[in-house]
Design a protein that fits this description.
Elements (H helix, E strand, L loop, with lengths): L2 H7 L2 E6 L1 H4 L8 H16 L3 E6 L2 H8 L9 H24 L5 E6 L1 H5 L1 H16 L3 E6 L13 H11 L4 E5 L24 H7 L10 H13 L4 E4 L1
Helix pairs in contact: 3-5, 4-5, 8-10
Pfam families: AA_kinase (PF00696)
Keywords: Amino-acid biosynthesis, ATP-binding, Cytoplasm, Kinase, Nucleotide-binding, Proline biosynthesis, Transferase
GO molecular function, one term: glutamate 5-kinase activity
Length: 237
């Protein structure tokens, strides 16, 4: 199925934005890039597609405000950066969508929310209410309070779980690479469609990583497994 045909067939989409997509090389929020993305999201909304956005970038965004040149190793400093950066992210999203007549709502999650049945049902109802009100949910892991025991570990995993939670037709993961390469980085041949995640595909995935993000292509394949088990599709772009 061609990508345009795919987008025409869906009614609810979860889009994950990786840190490299949202930030510049000197660790600033790339507001010009974010605005370009928002324009595309607005186009999808105008076509009647419901959107939920899983955003990364909070820690990187907060580092500059706290005077941190490199990503801190201590949990407390990471959480402080996440707290500052998350508010910056939301201000950007809120302004850009509001200028285009759309409302966003923030949802911060930890793993235990999606494990415990009552919390799971509560957050699912929240999503349902936001969608029915025409609001675009902006989701991130609650890094400012999450510890190892309740962390998802990466937003690829989070986006897949959210896609299943809201029964999305499609998960789109936007990254700093164009897709899945047959032999990254030497070959440059993109695999436009992967029908089965074989051991060979998993081996290829382990060769790809990004300096800003967690997990590289390996976590994206894990996300694909999560959504395809539910009969849904995933697109890496």
């Amino acid at each position: 199925m061609e990508r345009n045909e795919l987008l025409n067939s869906v009614r609810r989409v979860v889009i994950k934005l990786g840190t490299p997509v949202l930030t510049t090389e000197d660790n600033r929020l790339d507001t010009s890039r974010i605005e370009e993305l928002v324009e595309q999201f607005v186009w999808l909304r105008q076509k009647g597609v419901q959107l939920a956005i899983v955003t990364s970038g909070a820690i990187i965004a907060g580092m500059r405000s706290l005077g941190l040149r490199t990503k801190p190793k201590s949990l407390a400093k990471l959480q402080a950066a996440a707290s500052v950066g998350q508010s910056q992210l939301m201000r950007v999203y809120e302004r850009l969508f509001k200028e285009r007549g759309l409302i966003v709502g923030q949802i911060l999650l930890t793993k235990n929310i999606l494990i415990e049945k009552q919390r799971y049902l509560n957050v699912r109802n929240t999503f349902s209410s936001l969608f029915s009100s025409g609001v675009i949910p902006i989701i991130n892991e609650n890094d400012s309070v999450a510890v190892d025991e309740i962390k998802f570990g990466d937003n690829d995993t989070l986006s897949a779980l959210v896609a299943n939670l809201v029964e999305a037709d499609l998960l789109i993961i936007l990254s700093d690479v164009d897709g899945f390469y047959a032999d990254y980085p030497s070959n440059g041949k993109l695999l436009f469609q992967i029908k089965e995640i074989s051991p060979e595909i998993e081996k290829l995935a382990r060769r790809t990583n990004s300096s800003k993000s967690i997990g590289g292509m390996t976590t994206k394949l894990m996300a694909a497994k999560t959504v395809t088990k539910k009969g849904k599709m995933m697109l890496i772009a």
